[in-house]
Amino acid sequence: MSDIPKDLKYTQDHEWARQQGNLVVVGVTAHAQEALGDVVYVELPKVGTTLTAGKQFGVIESTKAVSELFAPISGKVVKVNDTLTGKPDTVNADPYGAGWIIEVELSDPKQLDGLLSPDAYADQLKNA
Amino acid sequence: MSLNWKYQESFAGRHIGPDEHELKAMLAVLGASSLEEFIDRTVPQAIRSKEPLRLAPGQGEHELLAQLEAIAAKNQRSKSFIGMGYYDTHTPNVILRNIFQNPGWYTQYTPYQAEIAQGRLEALLNFQTMVMDLTGLEVANASLLDEGTAAAEAMAMALHVKGEDDGAFFISETCHPQTIDVVRTRAAPLGVEVVVGDHRTVDLGAKKYFGALVQYPATDGGVFDYRAFAEKVHAAGALLVMATDLLALTLLTPPGELGTDVAVGSAQRFGVPMGYGGPHAAFFATKNAYTRLMPGRIIGVSEDAQGRRALRMALQTREQHIRREKATSNICTAQVLLAVIAGMYSVYHGPKGLKAIAERVHGLTALLAQGLTRLGYKLRHEQFFDTLRVELGSAQVRTVLSAAEAKGMNFHRIDERSIGISLDETTRAADVEAILGTFSAGKALEATLDELGTGLASPLEAGLRRQSAYLTHPVFNTYHSETEMLRYIRRLEARDLSLGHSMIPLGSCTMKLNATAEMIPVTWPAFGGLHPFAPPSQAAGYKIIFEQLESMLMEVTGFAGCSLQPNAGSQGEYAGLLVIRAYHQSRGQGHRDVCLIPQSAHGTNPASAVMAGYQVVVTKCDDQGNIDIADLRVKADEYKDRLAALMVTYPSTHGVFEEGIKEITSIIHERGGQVYMDGANLNAQVGLMKPGQLGADVCHINLHKTFCIPHGGGGPGMGPICVAPHLTKFLPGHPVIAMGGGTDRIGAISAAPWGSASILLISWMYMQMMGGEGLTQATKMAILNANYIAKRLDPHYPVLYRGKTGGVAHECIVDVRHLKKTAGVEVEDVAKRLMDYGFHAPTVSFPVAGTLMIEPTESESKAELDRFCDAMIAIREEIREIEEGKVPKDNNVLKNAPHTARMITAPEWNRPYSREKAAFPAKWVQEGKFWPPVGRLNNVLGDRKLVCSCPPIEEYMEPVPPKAA
Fold first, then answer.
1. Residue B721 CA: distances (Å) to CA of B49, B299, B415, B582, B695
2. How far apart are CA B562 and CA B547, in angstroms?
3. Residue A121 pLDDT > 70, yes or no?
4. What pTM was computed for the model?
5. Phi, psi for residue B275 in degrees, rounded to 5
6. Quick one: which H or E segment has residue B844?
7. Which residue in chain B is spatially nearest to A89 when comparing CA positions?
8. Does any CB of chain B come closer than 8 Å to the CB of residue A35?
9. Cα–Cα distances in Å, from B842 out to B116, B288, B337, B353, B838?
10. Among chain A residues, CA nearest to B323
11. In chain A, where are the structural domains located?
12. DSSP assigned state of B19
């Protein structure tokens, strides 16, 4: 079973979200990077883009597949991880740390309540 | 003894691999008493045709070629000065014989197995480099189907870049009319508004423009400086697409320096005959920022496992077969063979040679302009490259055109009051004199050409004259003697595995024989030299071929109409769906917008459906890989009012004859939908059943699969469609050549009215030589061969799907997924190890990830099938050694495959198996070895750091020292 940190929230599409006040950092889970294999490219949104929960905000590409990235929450992109442009494999090496993808300013701070808990995400992986 | 003086040689016996003895032996293995009995138990009775094909008996190859010569003689070869994207050219003879007519170049499939396709990949890298250099843009793909399609793809890409669902696209009225029409066809279902007008006056603020298309030089010859327009386009937040001409760009400021975002065009005039429309390679170049949105195949530079430079197709995950309905394009095929020829034309001539040719063309055009002016004619454009627009009175237009035709020359009638004349590589001074003669109307020119040509200068203004260098790479500056060129071509050829080496058992690709007799007429000048827009009366020979081929295809598919226009299977799908769309609209049912597609479908299906404006609804498959009829019924009911079509492949992509097909097609019809049948697997149907009788309304036919057009290393292909009677009036039209029928036709799908006309000869030859009986026998043998392989391999690798009676259709899927657990072996490892045995792998991971799909075709003998099965079985034994712990999981003959000569002869050898086992694992390899030129490709490296032009010379001069083997 892949690593599922307890302090994060998850989506069914294998994104994670870490809340820090009004800001949320978003990335993909260890399970997602394993399934994708070697990540070769991450298409990032522009800073300032407005995201809608559940809608696509970027693309992650490996030698095996291309997957859409879906916004776990609604809000405005305030930072993107530019490291991924030159070193996309950071997502493989450290999905919950240096491999973060975007930082979002929440439009409504309660939004994370609707996401999966670590246990619920673990159950989803088990049942898949 | 009695003498049989009536003996007739049969072509079918040459086309079909197994002889009588082999047939008997195979039937014995399969426990059948006769081929008939075997077919009866394998192909469900419910779907069989009751009648044999009504086609004439097969003919011998020599007799048929003689007949074809007579047909060819009905084509009239006039000198073409029509232009409009098609120009006469000299195919260098060293290229003609050693590439165009050489099975070492034309029989391969798309270079999915890069390690044994390095020759083609290098030739394509040359093509990309050539396009990037000449257009002045940063990245180019490995070719597209034709110029019109390339422009339509550019429009789709621009829409995607803008990130909007709809908007407006501007097209300059001086683009080729066929390009405008193909883009219009593509725009309509996407909800894009096309505005055709004058780029100098258009108000780009008036609509939500996302892109604009101009032609450089224009279709009527004018050369405009688009710099200011580019700024306007960018200020409007749109992309500028420029259709252009490679030969002109040796003299003109390249599109990239004018502010162009995308350049498209045709590379035809670089050594590829006009062929009455094709096949030719179109090109597509753009800026780095859009690389990942660029359609088509891209060849990239990477390294092999030993750290040596090696080439591969890059960014494959962007393709429709993985992206499916999310793909932005349905393009699968490129025009590899033609791109190779165009690239080699540049290698052969080099920058100086190309420039000299361009200057002659341009000079003769300037000379012609002088002469026409001297005769008192007015020219529309002051700046031109190779095309003049002569302004005349309407009576004069008719007089000049008929005078020209009488002298064996074709001009372009632009409109009531003007004529276009395009010169090309083959034009000489005598032609200019002859042209002037048609305009002189008895008046004397009062000057010799030499006098006119004294001090002749280019009419191009300074800003439009090219200053930047191009084709500076050594590959374009080295092989200019025929000896060097011949050896370069042969050296690359030797790096590719082709059907000249061994079977290429790619499932879903039908890699059958491309008989020499079928190929011969393609390069006859009587077929190759015709311009697609020549007066139809000059193409009487072609007309016979088209009519006979259409009627044979309709007989095979059980349909009433046929369009030969679609240039690839994907284009056939797209055309067929547009025909269905037009049908629904004609009945006031235009709201029908749902297309059902089974999970197991080829990825191109959903991509085409989206292009046709449909919403894709995926239906499930059951455990046996068959369409889940219950689920299909539920979804068909759910969308009953919106149901437009079902796309279905038959036999299924899983290689099984589904018994429920007629029930499936009825479910759709009962709810007002139409059935589109993907003809990818038609090789299992011909003569035994017909799509029309199974309940389909449209089907496309991959002539490059079932009907012997060679795959060309990844193109050309052809995907004509056949349709039921109620759909015939909607078949594609053409803006230049009238296709007959009423006004209900959909717009052009391809630039040329009959697509890649010259290669239709291949399918015509095949069908005529086989006859109805031969074609049916081929189908039976294809099914027998597949079942024989399934039977032999099943004990070693489980066969995944079977029909009710235990048989497969014309291909089978073998499972290797369990070997990952037991030995750490993945499907890629088996594929690469096959190379050490001298084989190309079957289709990897389609339609089921982690499996191999094998399609032997009827052309492979039992001896070859046995050799392949022996290799697969030997590899299974090698895997067993890993399973038993005799060799490590990460260091064995599979993981290290393929083994190159360099690896085998490295001074140090520290692998847990012998050099001999690595490179000579079977007896036949000891007798004749195909050495993979590079080791296992590093896919990750190539996709992370994309390099898609020829690498700098240093890399050629100082090869990376090999790591110890």
1. 20, 30, 33, 15, 15
2. 10
3. yes
4. 0.95
5. 55, 30
6. strand B843-844
7. B944
8. no
9. 13, 34, 22, 42, 13
10. A66
11. 9-127
12. -
What pLDDT is recorded for position B962? 46
Q: Note the pLDDT tens digit of each residue in B590-625.
A: 999 999 999 888 889 999 999 999 999 999 998 888
Q: What are phi and psi of B168, to 5 degrees?
A: -120, 150
Q: In the prediction, which pLDDT does B406 show?
A: 94
Distance between CA atoms of residues B695 and B550, nearest Å: 20
Per the CB < 8 Å rule, is A66 touching B322?
yes
- Interchain pair A61, B944: CB under 8 A: no
Q: Please tell me the distance from the alpha carbon of residue B622 to that of residue B644, in angstroms, as a whole number.
A: 24
Q: How far is CA A110 from CA A55, A76, B11, B69, B99, in A?
A: 18, 15, 76, 79, 66
Instruction: Specify whether the CB–CB gap between B691 and B699 falls below 8 A.
Output: yes
- Cα torsion B79, B81, B87, B92: sign: positive
d(CA B377, CA B365) in angstroms, rounded, equals 15
pLDDT number for residue A126:
87
Per-residue model confidence as pLDDT tens digits over B244-254: 999 999 999 99
pLDDT for position B961: 47
Across the interface, whether the CB atoms of A43 and B292 are under 8 A apart is answered: yes
Q: What is the pLDDT of residue B960?
A: 46
* Strand intervals (E) in B333-411: 378-379, 387-391, 409-410
Q: What's the pLDDT score for residue A67?
A: 86
- Residue B352 distance to chain A (closest CA, Å): 39
A63 touching B (Cβ < 8 Å): yes
Q: Is B264 helix (H, G, I), strand (E, B) or coil?
A: strand
Mind listing the pLDDT tens digit for each residue in B363-419? 999 999 999 999 999 999 999 999 999 999 888 999 999 999 999 999 999 999 999
Q: Any chain B CB within 8 A of the CB of A89?
A: yes
Report CA B93 to chain centroid distance, whole Å.
Answer: 23
Q: What value, to the nearest 5°, has the Cα angle with vertex B541 and ends B539 and B545?
A: 115
Closest residue of A to B327, CA-based? A66
Closest Cα in chain B, distance from residue A21 (Å): 32
CA distance B448 to B451: 5
Q: Does A58 contact chain B (CB < 8 Å)?
A: no
The pLDDT tens digits for B138-188 are 999 999 999 999 999 999 999 999 887 789 999 999 999 999 999 999 999
Note the pLDDT tens digit of each residue in A22-34.
Answer: 899 999 999 999 9
pLDDT band at B320 (very low <50, low <70, confident <90, very high): low
Q: What is the pLDDT of residue A1?
A: 56
Query: Is domain A9-127 classified as CATH 2.40.50.100?
Result: yes
Residue of A nearest to B943 (CA): A40
The pLDDT of B345-355, averaged and rounded, is 98
- How high is the pLDDT of residue B132? 98
**Which residue reads 């296709």 in tokens?**
B739
Residues B287, B256: Cα–Cα separation, whole Å:
9
Q: For B504-554, how does the pLDDT look when each residue is reduced to its tens digit (9 = 90+)?
A: 999 999 999 999 999 999 999 999 999 999 999 999 999 999 999 999 999
CB atoms within 10 A of CB B356: 13
**Strand ranges for B639-789 from DSSP E:** 643-649, 674-678, 698-700, 721-723
Cβ-based neighbour number of residue A58 at 10 Å: 21
Give the Cα separation of B524 and B191 in Å (integer): 43
State the nearest Cα–Cα gap between B940 and chain A, in angstroms: 6
Q: Which two tokens stand for residue A127?
A: 């049942």
Å between A52 CA and nearest CA of chain B: 16
Residues B944, A43: C-beta atoms closer than 8 Å: no
pLDDT given at position B954: 63
Give the dihedral of Cα atoms B912, B916, B920, B921; nearest 10 deg: -40
